[in-house]
Automatic annotation (TrEMBL):
Taxonomic superkingdom: Bacteria
Residues that span the membrane, as ranges: none
UniProtKB keywords: Acyltransferase, Transferase
UniProt-listed Pfam families: ACP_syn_III_C (PF08541)
Domain Beta-ketoacyl-[acyl-carrier-protein] synthase III C-terminal, first and last residues per copy: 281-360
NCBIfam families attached to this UniProt entry: PRK06816.1 (NF005293)
InterPro entries: ACP_syn_III_C, Thiolase-like
Protein name from the UniProt record: Beta-ketoacyl-[acyl-carrier-protein] synthase III C-terminal domain-containing protein
Amino acid sequence: MFDVYITKAAKYLPNEAVSNDEMETYLGLINDTASKARRIILRNNKIQSRYYAVDKNGKSTHTNAELAKNAIEQLFDENFTNQDLEVLSCGTSSPDIIAPSHAAMVHGLLKNKSVELNSSMGICCSGMNALKYGFLSIKAGNSKNAICTGSEKVSTWLSAQKYNNEIINLKNLEEQPIIAFKKDFLRWMLSDGAGAFLLQNKPGGEISLKIEWMEAYSYAFELEACMYAGGDKLENGDIKPWSDFTPEQWLNESVFAVKQDVKLLDEFILPKGVESMSDAMAKHNITAKDVDYFLPHVSSYFFVEGLKKGLDEKGIILTEEKWFMNLLRVGNVGSASIYIAVEELMNSGKLKKGDKILLSVPESGRFSFAYAYLTVC
């Protein structure tokens, strides 16, 4: 078994930062009416700026694959060129197309050479799953290096025009032409961007991060879907897939819209997160004293105090100075968020050799959680 190091990290955030007051300029107004939920949701998540891969007319400036490619290219230099790459592992929850895979589309843009590909689907944990594939490949001696990414392009999924047919249909049915909260909620939570790591079997550069271990947990065996797209939830909790709807229903019911069951989110995201993190730390015999920096991916500051309280009750006392977050400035970039946070910390000048970093990534899709423990070297 070989040691695995993150030797370089990069991010790509498209265009200029978008303030809270500018959001509807980019995403548009549903039914020509400002969202009543927007201010409430933004007040709770405390995000102040984010990035969109669209212009003010809603026209795309980048694809998801291009965002990932732009982050990846920053990892190449005279010491590691695109011809040296062996494994490309890409995670996303918002691929540009259903098939071919997201990793294949990114590789097509790199135009380097034949490499091994892996695409990880899911939601926020897809980025961590992509990282674990690269980690295990190097650890097992299958490869000497890998580039792993998390990237999202959700702005076009959230544009007002995607909901117009549903509004027209509601008017025709003489119902209130208001998009359900489960759809409107995520329009003010998500943003675009990409992050990338270069993994190698030897440390390199001024700072490298040795991946000590990675763990992942799923509670889908006992909990129904909470965040979903490309279908709709039935009364019994099952998801009816898009392929079982008519094309008219795709439009009239915004079947492809990203939805969030907020009640389920509130009930389970923190308890299951605390439970899985406690299990991961116990499995590897570490405590809060063995953590110098805690990087939790959270979708909203609304959950931060609850997470702290839950961890405290488990005896995991992570003091304020150990928490490292950039949600306020870059927004919730889904699978890319943890990459972007690590890149910022890695290049901050704060790290010293021997520091221990714990990464925590929850996914509300059907409640999955992923963790990684890193040593600065």
